[in-house]
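name: query_chain
kind: protein
chains: 1
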Amino acid sequence: MSIARNVVAVDLGAESGRLVLCRWNGSDGSLEEIHRFPNGPKQVDKHLVWDVDRLWNEIQQGLSKAATKTGGQVDSVGVDGWGVVYALLDGAGNRIGQSFCYRDARNVPAMEKTFTKISRQRLYEITGIQMLPFNTVHQLVAHVEEFPEDWNRAAFWLNLPEYFQYRLTGVAAAEYTEASTTQLLDVRKRTWSQELASALGFDLAKFPSIVQAGTVLGKIRPEISQATGLTNTQVITPACHDTGSAVAGIPFSHEESAFISSGTWSLVGTVLLHPVVSGDGQGKTFTNEGGVAGSIRFLQNVIGLWLLQECLREWNAQGLHLTPADLAAQCLETPPDGPYFYADETRYLAPGNMVERINAGLRDAGFAEEKRPPELAAIIFRSLARRYAEVVGEMGKLTGKSIKRICIVGGGVKNEALNRLTELVTGIPVVRGPSESTAAGNLAVQIAALEKSVSLNHVQEISARLKFGPPQ
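structure:
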């Protein structure tokens, strides 16, 4: 029987993090953002790294606010975040070394080193994951080469959302959707790959056990309860990968549908019950990431609004005071035809000097340079829409799935210029899902777990009944 609950989602993004409180009355849920904080990598020596301790402090502050709002009565907490980033821990659970940013320059050469130990083809056959330089497998290769003493000291490692859940509970577990982004998981067996670990010299004893989204890890440790004011609160692992939670938060059927989780990154894909791993899939760089209830998110990572975010940093540093909403509003009538660049080249991954790098891409594509902010924003949106169309078309061919609807979720839902261009360029109707899909999916999985029924349909039904604002 469904009963009233208080549930908290910790949602970590590469640009910001927040905690969202859901008051679930048994049939509907009202969502309230109770704590938000900025995030971003910092330079330490020659590397980009995450300030993990500051993130932990922010999470505790947010939990204290949740306790204040609920009189300490929070049923469960779950953490989601971006993929691929990890922490090494010693036998006492203390973090070893840094948690490196996926945009760190070490990753591209590390990927090539990985391929000297195992071929691209075999890596894809085992994992079903597209070849991206920031996948955890390459990051670990880089870490072991530069800091072998860190790996030798480590008793185990966890991706970042699971690391924070470990700090809350003392339970070390890798959640399936997050683990799948590492490119260390056997896509068919859904376990860590012994063949891959052996080829790369990784000790599988350091790999955490894998659990499914909706697993109850245990109660928050007494010292955390005392520090935050929470009592008798459980930690339930959601889809720890933020895209996994975002897809769980889609309130529409996945039949004949594609999704675009649109934000700093754009994840363009569809939900399947079984992986698709083939020569064609490898050539098209599609990936088979884990989803809720053992499903598969068949998708491509497409660079997203990061392009505009980086341009805005430059323009605003020059005193222009522009916002994403301003530029999107000025680009509403952008035609689908016109100058574009190939948005998915590795030259756009690193921060800094984005306007010039995009103009280099325009020159390479045979177009004139463009440095006026509205005109360049329009080119960015057109280039992304063209790339979305390519991915959706390739995806339909590989899966045999008829795509008759594209659901946009995430922060990009509010970018009508990009959404309109996506519909025009793809020729497929676009529907707008929730901009807060990640938080909704995280919370829906926790509620489903508390109700002891974590199925795709049940999670989707709960997601559709979650709204920001007071109860209806």
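note: The two ends are 21 Å apart (CA to CA).
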